Structure formats: structure tokens, C-alpha cells
Amino acid sequence: MPLEIRELIIKAELGSPEGAGQAARGGTTDSKAKEQLVRDCVEQVLEILREREER
Prior knowledge:
There is one protein chain. The chain is an all-alpha fold and 55 residues long. The protein has a domain of 28 residues. It has two helices and no strands. Helix 1 packs across helix 2. It is flat.
């Protein structure tokens, strides 16, 4: 009998527990890094959408 997976949950943690304490104290560099990561992700998603439109 085949097995069908209807829902898949993926969890990921960035950084280490030691870095969590540093983020609370000096969040400016962390927030800038997060903003850059979000920008990169948005750029990649928009590129994928443009490629789909061309097809």
C-alpha cells in the first residue's frame, strides 16, 4: 500500500543559542542582516515569477 504525505512541516533555526543573547543586546547589525536576507529572498522570488511569466 503506498504512503501519501499530505502535510510536511519544516522547522529551521538560524544561528546558535549563544548568538541569541547577543542579538538582544546589539540588534542593529542583526536587524540589518535580516533586512538584507529578506531583500535577497524577495529578489529571488520575483525572478522566479518573471521566469514563469516568460514561459
